[in-house]
Amino acid sequence: MSQINLDHEAELDTLASERVQVNFGELYDPTTNEACGMDNPNAGKYCPFHEDQIAILEANHRFICACAGTGGGKTVVGAYWTVFQIQKAIQKHGKCHGMIIAPTYKVLSRATTPTFIDACQHTEFEGNFKNHTGYFESKSKYILPNNWGVIWCQGADNPGGLEGGQFDFVWFDEGGQGKKATYEAITGRTGAKQGPVLVTTTPYGLGALYNEWYKHYLAGNDDYFFRIWDSVKNPAYPQEEFERARSRLSPEKFQERYRGQFMRLEGLVYQTFHKTRISMSTEQILDMISSREGKLYGGMDFGWNDPFAANIGFLDFETDVLTIFWERYKSQTPIEEHADALPKTIAGKSITWAADSARPDLIRKLKKGGHNIKKAKKHYKGTSVSAIINGILMMGSRIHSNRLRVVENMCPALCAESEVYRYPEKDEEVIGDKPIDMDNHCMDDVRYMITEIDWKKSA
Ligand SMILES: Nc1ncnc2c1ncn2[C@@H]1O[C@H](COP(=O)(O)OP(=O)(O)OP(=O)(O)O)[C@@H](O)[C@H]1O
Ligand SMILES: [Mg+2]
């Protein structure tokens, strides 16, 4: 079997201006510009990458992001970037150990891995795909030929699956909705080899990708590279569809979905939360707590695969301003470990905790550990929905009247969740006027804290 040259620059030079009746990635004969089979000695892969895709393939940065409109050619460029990384690793070490992820195993299996398998086809890296879908985890692997190594393919939703081991590279398809913990895990797993990480995605609000990567890129950090492009940069994407979307969607939604631009999400529960953000040093915080009349409040939301989230705030009695300055946000950790990590006093003042009432067993354990903790109030008797809505109103009222401040350098998870915690859109099948039950761990713990503080006033 002959093998296909994967030199993308050569492909671009010879193909960019030509009209070839072949689909991307298919075999063709460059002398006739027609589709052909592997038996044709001239056979090549038709890969006419556009300039933004080329920029991604050529980037030498540690953290690379292809941020583009839907259908812009993100997954294809990710798949070929992966093949080039395999080639580089084998040239360098004779072995390759890589990872491909997507937000869920479903997304991974639908487009990401099939595109990668196609990209490997007819190259010297064509191997065997082994699907492993079990009850506890869904992990697949692509076994490279010649004992060259394995590319692991998994969903970021695989509990604990992203921990442990070192990789030559990671490709994260649809990483825009990725959580902070996933970004930390993939950075850690490429740390020893300083391997590159590629994210291919449409942006999604000002979430983890924005906070963990894009801000560094904007600040001029050379480890980060972003390339942003429109859906129609892909010549295969219909211009009419692009125009139809422009006329149908709000300008913000269009910018995000079809132009790959970072936008603040519509339908955020706390639209102006970003105005509460301030920066404070540890000394300034301790000084505030010890010198002002006031009280410390904590909020806590339990989770195992979802993170356990806790925040602490200082309520100033004179101004009624609540300053949230402490955070714990950690998955898969026993309650005893959390109990040890949670402070009981700060600057001589004790903390009153309000916690998720669904777990009285854990509340009991924390009480035994010496914490002053109670069930979060469900003001308005009745459903949990009314408790949520009521809590949101109280928190919204604090934001509106400048009585909430969040120390952003101490509470990154709270700030990140506030940028993605939102109400369902019209076409999403969620009932009621409750926010989507996602990205709400710090959002819930702070809601418990504020309900504890403000419920009497609003009763
Ligand atoms: N430079 C290109 N020239 C021609 N066709 C391309 C090019 N890049 C991608 N395509 C084709 O366009 C289609 C969409 O590409 P791809 O799936 O990579 O886009 P995407 O941005 O990941 O889309 P989605 O938003 O649906 O995830 C595929 O059929 C792909 O083969
Ligand atoms: Mg895609």
What secondary-structure arrangement, pairings included, does this model have?
Blueprint: H1 8-15, E1 27-29, E2 34-35, E3 44-45, H2 51-58, E4 63-68, H3 74-93, E5 96-102, H4 105-120, E6 128-130, E7 139-143, E8 149-155, E9 169-173, H5 180-189, E10 197-201, H6 208-218, E11 224-229, H7 239-248, H8 251-259, E12 277-278, H9 282-291, E13 294-301, E14 308-316, E15 322-330, H10 335-341, E16 345-346, E17 349-355, H11 360-368, E18 373-375, H12 384-400, E19 404-407, H13 412-418, H14 441-458
Parallel strand pairs: 4-10, 4-11, 5-8, 5-9, 9-10, 12-19, 13-17, 15-19, 17-18
Antiparallel strand pairs: 1-2, 1-3, 6-7, 7-8, 13-14, 14-15, 16-17
The structure holds adenosine-5'-triphosphate and magnesium ion.
In summary, what is this structure?
This protein has 14 helices and 19 strands. The protein is elongated.
Label the CATH architecture of the largest domain: 3-Layer(aba) Sandwich
CATH topology of the largest domain: Rossmann fold
Radius of gyration: 25 Å
Poorly predicted regions are: 12-17
Structural description of this entry:
By secondary structure, the chain is an alpha/beta fold. The chain folds into three domains: 1-48, no CATH class; 49-259, P-loop containing nucleotide triphosphate hydrolases (Rossmann fold, 3-Layer(aba) Sandwich), CATH 3.40.50; 273-458, Nucleotidyltransferase, domain 5 (2-Layer Sandwich). Helix content is 35%, strand content 21%. The chain is built from 14 helices and 19 strands. It has helices at 8-15, 51-58, 74-93, 105-120, 180-189, 208-218, 239-248, 251-259, 282-291, 335-341, 360-368, 384-400, 412-418, 441-458; strands spanning 27-29, 34-35, 44-45, 63-68, 96-102, 128-130, 139-143, 149-155, 169-173, 197-201, 224-229, 277-278, 294-301, 308-316, 322-330, 345-346, 349-355, 373-375, 404-407. The strands form three sheets. The protein has an eight-stranded mixed β-sheet, sandwiched between helices. Strand 7 (139-143) and strand 8 form a beta hairpin. Helix 3 (74-93) crosses helix 4 (105-120) and helix 12 (384-400) crosses helix 14. The longest helix has 20 residues, at 74-93. It is elongated, with a radius of gyration of 25 Å. The termini are far apart. Mean pLDDT is 90; it is low at 12-17. Magnesium ion (MG) is lined by residues 74-75, 111.
